[in-house]
Design brief:
The structure holds 2 protein chains of 2 kinds. Chain A is an all-alpha fold. Chain A has 14 helices and no strands. In chain A, helix 3 crosses helix 10, helix 4 packs antiparallel against helix 10 and helix 12 packs antiparallel against helix 13. Chain A starts with a helix and ends in a 9-residue tail after the last helix. Helices cover 36% and strands 24% of the residues of chain B. Chain B has a 6-stranded mixed sheet, sandwiched between helices. Classes of the chains: A mainly alpha, B alpha/beta. The interface between A and B is large, with 34 and 47 residues.
């Protein structure tokens, strides 16, 4: 009963935020709308990573490779074929998920750090292919001026497209995390050995999660193409993978919206502090150090309700997962 | 029900299990005893698939299960608990058991139905039968040691096993906790028709509860039989119980 009310209150809160975001172009200038679109794209990418990192306990160290695959698939299909842009948009996430299936299928045989190291290697292989295959990808020049459908010609049109796709992806992710699939995934994060012993095929389950997460990473890649009309090899470089991992940690990787908050902070720091000094990462470093000491579960991991409940029932704190 | 024949497992050159023999019949409570390092835990890990044997055979209900992965063995009806409380610490008590029930029903890949509404009655039923229902919303990591051990058994019950393998179910428990844990295990065996294989250091518990006892030393089975017979066995007295008047 109480859970129902809480859930509906959460739902109303989400609706209000969405409404505010939808009305924003009426008051905010073009620049802020663009920054907000960047945050949504990076946030979607970070949240797709967090399906695996925070909720799945997998060392998904090169998630950006799949983002790049999604973006390049869309860009190449639009520029090199006569197919309508929609086909490119749809093919991006599918190709990313396919890459996830292949690379994930190889990596999932290994555990923890070994999984992560192998994934960095295989992902870097994709990066090198994109960087060096001039004939197909134009190498380090990237592809620019990718033609977009008419309704994506204004920054407001782009913003609404990014906002609706992101909202749809987040809704799907939320459902998946609340489902038995998500519950099992979190159980694997907590204790893979115990999961094996209750009849769960841990590796197969992790692989399924990788395919789902890389699909959403590919969707974020397509949104990047829509937003910037260009792609470049750095999208597949491991530094970006590290950045989105930091977003997850910063915002709170055991929470749902944490990575989105982390993305907002990183993008804002880069944009506003980065415009006055090139050493903006110095501030990021300080923030991270403080975080590790005082809020090891990230900004949103700090849950006031948890604190109150813990005080009320000191011996046995209970929290919603 | 379970038949272990001439099982071997070595780590580097150390022979942890070196020709173990074990028979468990349906409905029995069988105890495995032996000094520290006799290979009891390794034997259990071989039976439930955490480890693969070097050679030897394991039959469950007449079918070979030797070397199958743990999740496949579990699906055939063998559930287990571990020596060190092995639970999902960040999940609630309810979710700990629910995950196991979902796995048994093959619902683990359901993507768009809220887990909150699935297998709730069965999960509650199990939590009631082990006496953890009042704590179902607690985070499992915050439970007391005794409750964690009970939760482990509840997780195993979620699989509706025919054979329950318990690796030192009372390790680290106070005498009172041991007492109530053994009462619980006996009641579960009776009410649910479970066959139970366990190992235990407390000899009072073993001789009180077990229908049959298997004694291990240096990875080998040195005796197997009903408690009075094992108690009277000279090899056991020498090797394990030490000097007996």
């Amino acid at each position: 009963m109480i859970a129902n009310i809480l859930r509906s209150r959460e739902f109303i809160l989400n609706l209000l935020v969405l409404l505010a975001l939808a009305l924003l172009p009426a008051v905010a200038g073009r620049f802020y709308i663009y920054i907000l679109s960047v945050i949504l794209v990076m946030g979607l990418l970070a949240m797709s990573l967090n399906l695996l990192a925070g909720h799945g306990g997998t060392y998904q160290f090169h998630h950006a490779a799949f983002y790049g695959v999604g973006a390049y698939t869309a860009a190449l299909l639009i520029t090199r074929t006569a197919l309508p842009a929609w086909v490119g948009f749809a093919a991006g996430p599918v190709m990313a998920a396919l890459a996830g299936l292949i690379i994930g299928g190889i990596c999932v045989r290994l555990n923890k750090l070994y999984f992560g190291m192998l994934q960095i290697s295989l992902g870097s292989l994709l990066w090198i292919i994109v960087l060096r295959w001039y004939g197909l990808t134009a190498g380090d020049d990237g592809i620019h001026g990718i033609p977009m459908p008419a309704f994506l010609s204004t920054s407001t049109g782009i913003y609404y497209f990014v906002l609706s796709v992101t909202t749809a992806c987040l809704a799907l992710m939320y459902l998946i995390l609340k489902s038995p699939f998500g519950a099992t995934l979190r159980a694997i994060r907590d204790n893979p050995q115990r999961c094996e012993a209750v009849g769960i095929n841990v590796r197969r389950h992790q692989l399924a999660a990788i395919v789902i997460a890389t699909f959403f990473a590919g969707a974020a890649g397509v949104l990047f193409v829509v937003l910037e009309s260009s792609v470049y090899p750095d999208m597949l470089f491991w530094v970006l993978s590290l950045e989105i991992f930091i977003m997850c940690l910063l915002g709170g990787w055991f929470t749902f919206y944490g990575p989105m908050l982390g993305a907002a902070i990183m993008v804002a720091l880069r944009t506003f502090v980065g415009s006055t000094t090139e050493y903006w990462t110095l501030i990021l470093g300080v923030v991270l150090i403080l975080l590790i000491f005082f809020l090891p579960e990230g900004l949103m991991g700090f849950d006031l309700r948890k604190l109150i409940r813990a005080r009320r029932r000191r011996a046995y704190p209970s929290v919603p997962e | 029900m379970l038949q272990v024949e001439n099982l071997h497992k070595s780590f580097d050159k150390f022979k942890a299990v070196n020709g173990a023999e074990l028979t468990v019949n349906a409905g029995e409570m069988v105890a495995v005893i032996g000094p520290n390092g006799a290979g009891k835990t390794t034997l259990f890990n071989l039976i439930t698939g955490q480890l693969k044997p070097d050679h030897g055979r394991i039959l469950f209900r007449g079918e070979p299960i030797t070397g199958l992965p743990a999740h496949a063995i579990c699906r055939r009806g063998i559930a287990r608990s571990f020596q060190i409380a092995n639970i999902f610490p960040r999940l609630t008590v309810f979710r700990n058991v629910q995950v196991s029930v979902l796995s048994r029903k093959g619902l683990g890949y359901t993507l768009f139905t809220p887990a909150q509404r699935l297998v709730v009655d069965e999960t509650h039923h199990i939590l009631e039968s082990v006496g953890l229902i009042d704590k179902k919303l607690y985070v499992a990591g915050a439970l007391s040691h005794g409750d964690k051990r009970t939760l482990e058994i509840a997780i195993a019950l979620g699989n509706e096993p025919e054979l329950l393998v318990l690796d030192e179910p009372t390790a680290g428990m106070s005498p009172e906790e041991t007492e109530s844990a053994m009462v619980l295990i006996k009641r579960l065996a009776r009410d649910q028709g479970l066959t139970i294989l366990f190992c235990e250091h407390d000899m009072d518990v073993v001789f009180n509860v077990a229908n049959r006892i298997m004694v291990m030393q240096h990875g080998r089975t040195i005796a197997q039989g009903p408690p009075p017979e094992v108690r009277g066995n000279l090899a056991v007295q020498e090797a394990y119980l030490g000097e007996v008047d």
